[in-house]
Amino acid sequence: MKSLLIITALPNSLKAFLLPFAAHFRAQGWRVDAMANGVSTSTECLQAFDHVWDVDFSRNPLDKTNLLIAPPQIRAVVTREKYDIVHVHMAVAAFVTRYALKDLRKQGKFKIIYTTHGFNFYLGGVPLQNAIFLTLEKLAGRWTDYIVTINREDEEAAKQYQILPKERVRYMPGIGVDSDRYNINTVTNADVMQVRQEMGLALETQLFLSIAEFIPRKRHPDMLKAMARLAKPEACLAFVGDGVLKEQMQKLACELGVQNQVRFLGFRRDIPTLLRASVATVLVSEQEGLPRSLMESFCLQIPAIGTDIRGIRDLLETGCGLLVKVGDIDALASAMSWILEHPDEAQAMGKRGQEMMAIYDLRQILQLHETLYAEAL
Q: Do 140 and 254 fall within a single domain?
């Protein structure tokens, strides 16, 4: 029996992206285990994987726990369980795992694959931080068999800086979007009307939707400022998600005088319905890997407004939405105004987005992983 260990820093990443991979490879007879900080407390992960292993990861790259406590825990599990492939996701967990296993890997008993959901060095990043993170990636590249990138900028960077030889750098269009769940046929008009009523929206109100954790790099203040500058009472902006900055953003909405045009919805399970209730999604991050929220939007024929950065650019530059510069409030307000004033063109953008989603579909990504694993073994 072939065996696979999937590692992330936190179980939320497993639940958000990787449960379908566990189901797929277990159905093919693989043993699929997971490792993350606190994973044994996750009911979904306990059900999805054959075994789960806790590890003392911290998302803070400066936390000493990452290099003092976590490595022996990782080595002990991998030595005992004898996996064929160790597949690690996210930067901090990936560096620590590869550091922990660098000597064991030399024995040739398993392969290490790293999927970067966005390198921590990127065009437009702080030069000193870019230099530090690039140095760390190049160091860890020595302990890696394959790197999977999910946007073209990262693919080019991995090859340009020779993090690995070009033949061991693989581009995959994302981590997969479930087009069966995010499908216009799964959402009824009654569903849309109900969720709009829940938000207290009038019939003429046009809804913009933003799905993003309330953290600095998502730049929620830009969207609130754009709403104020838009000055269209028939527009409403709804935020899906939680995070450390949520309360601060609620205060900012009041300060800007747009609190009646903004909804803070928190964590939601009815994303397809919320998307179909919207005229466009908005994502104005300064850093992304490949945002799945935009892919989900396109699956439901909803166009997007996004910043001109890696990942977002990959999705929008083919005419499925509008690109604006990071931090350009005027351009963002203008893009929102254009969506409101050109409904037919906006709908055409959404349809183009749906047509493009075939290559990003989860089934396609699973097949690419099958091919990569077969080559690695």
A: no
